[in-house]
Design a protein that fits this description.
15 strands; six-stranded parallel β-sheet; alpha/beta; 11 helices; TIM Barrel; six-stranded antiparallel β-sheet
Amino acid sequence: MTSPPAGVTHAGVTHGLVCAHHHLYSALARGMPPPPATPGNFQEILELIWWRLDCALDDEMLRASARLGALEALERGCTAIIDHHESPNAIDGSLSIIAEACAEVGVRVSCAYGVTDRHGPEGARQGLRENERYLQEGGRGMVGVHAAFTCEADTLAGAAEMAKNFGVGVHIHVGEGAPDAQAAEVLAPYATADWLLVHGVLLEDDHPLAGTIVHNPRSNMNNSVGYARPVRFANPVALGTDGIGADMLEEFRLAYVCLRATDVAATPETPWQWLLQGEELFPEVRNDEVRWSYGDMDPWSLAFTPGVSPLSVRVDGEEVWADGSPTKVDAAEVRAHATEQAQRLFAKLA
């Protein structure tokens, strides 16, 4: 008798899956009004879409988006989310709103506020204070930084020092696109093994940064920033979605075909290990159990089998998903609230 693949407890059962990089606030973005101009590159995608959207967010929108994002994660067997948040006009208390919304649904979350100097020194200080407040109050999280190219040196140093003092890492976008091409040089004095280095597309093979690379293949293709080819790094690699849901089996499949497109000898076992790296970042999911609609929960089978869904999900022994529905919340109410708040958001953006 052979042992089940890593991460599989027995036929059709796994631990909870982990999304190692999410933007829960983006759950309300679907169907948003078109930007004032068509973006032509990554910088313009940020400026014309995402930086306009995060400025429009308020507390009620945050709650609605986090509940919807958590519900959608649970629907796909994902029991833990490592979230990276920004809402420059609704900073104070934002991480607690997100954490409480996820707990309401029954999903674990690690929160971080993405500090940036895009909104001036006071905006950066506010972001740092929100990270500090949340961590001081015992929240599960990290210190968030948007990216090196949007932060002054003092802000980066302050975030790194805060993370060190709390014994957590920094959660930061690194080398995602051309504006952040110098990230490795800027961050080298600060990065430690507990940092999350998200994207890494433009990092050199032998870059000097310690930490876990979080690969987001769907987002990288959507933003046309290139293929990170994470097999080239010595760092551990995990999988995230960058805000495009939390279907981690689908992200695993996409990570495999992206790898296979560059190396015909590549096997699904490599991106499967990237998926399982999430357990190292969020070890509590080893106390979670997902029973699936498919018996062969091994990478070779799953790489070619779309549509695998959870039948039941237990988080720390509590059944939070059963018979196609969440047990702690009314899915229809969560979606109706999200639709209502999305319309408010769209009106602000129009």
